[in-house]
Design brief:
Blueprint lengths: L1 H27 L10 H12 L4 E8 L2 H8 L1 H18 L5 E6 L2 E7 L4 H16 L3 E2 L2 E2 L4 E8 L6 H16 L15
Antiparallel strand pairs: 1-3, 1-6, 2-3, 4-5
Helix pairs in contact: 3-4
Protein name: Diguanylate cyclase (GGDEF)-like protein
InterPro entries: Diguanylate_Cyclase, GGDEF_dom, Nucleotide_cyclase, Rev_trsase/Diguanyl_cyclase
GO molecular function: diguanylate cyclase activity
Length: 189
């Protein structure tokens, strides 16, 4: 009887500790505001995914995001980021991982994409989905994101290089007609 009690306590303690460890790990790998994966999660998934094939990484930031904070305040800006995260989470396909890097910068890990044109097509789909955000907390908004993407074969893939190249392409996207940087923010009434 005493042995069964000791076993029950040990089992309960182990289950509780395992649950706590899992929750702690999830907390360290996710962004507290949006719930998306964070950079540490991106790095871990990149190392894991590149072993099984080619990878692409898209990097983007919000166009005109500062205007949301300046016009409506930072809580509203946070709501914009949360909504963008929801859209990215909803629109990513199985295996793709949306990430909030920091501030208004996001990334999406796109494993298995071998072709730069296919990666760019996928990025345009994500951009289009983000532009469908038309209201935040009942306030009309125009939301867009500049995105750049880079692909690499698995054997030569390096996350730092991919992120840097995708970031360069994202700034190129900001300077084309694909992304609007002059977002009109309706004034509060």
């Amino acid at each position: 009887m005493l042995a069964q009690l000791a076993l029950s306590v040990t089992t309960a303690t182990t289950v509780a500790a395992t649950g706590y460890a899992w929750r702690y790990r999830q907390k360290t790998l996710s962004d507290p505001l949006t719930g998306l994966a964070n950079r540490a999660a991106l790095e871990a998934e990149f190392r894991r995914r590149r072993r099984s094939g080619p990878v692409a990484v898209a990097v983007g930031d919000m166009n005109g995001f500062k205007a949301f904070n300046d016009t409506y305040g930072h809580r509203f800006g946070d709501q914009v980021l949360i909504e963008v995260a929801r859209v990215l989470a909803r629109e990513t396909c199985r295996g793709e991982i949306p990430v909030r890097l920091h501030g208004d910068e996001f990334a999406v890990l796109l494993p298995g994409i071998t072709d730069q044109a296919a990666a760019e097509h996928r990025v345009r789909q994500l951009q289009s989905a983000i532009t469908q955000i038309t209201a935040i907390d009942g306030q009309p908004v125009e939301v867009s994101m500049a995105l750049g993407v880079m692909t690499m074969p698995a054997e030569s893939a390096d996350l730092s290089h991919l992120l840097g190249s995708a970031d360069d392409r994202m700034y190129g996207d900001k300077h084309t007609n694909h992304s609007r940087t002059d977002i009109a923010i309706p004034q509060p009434q």
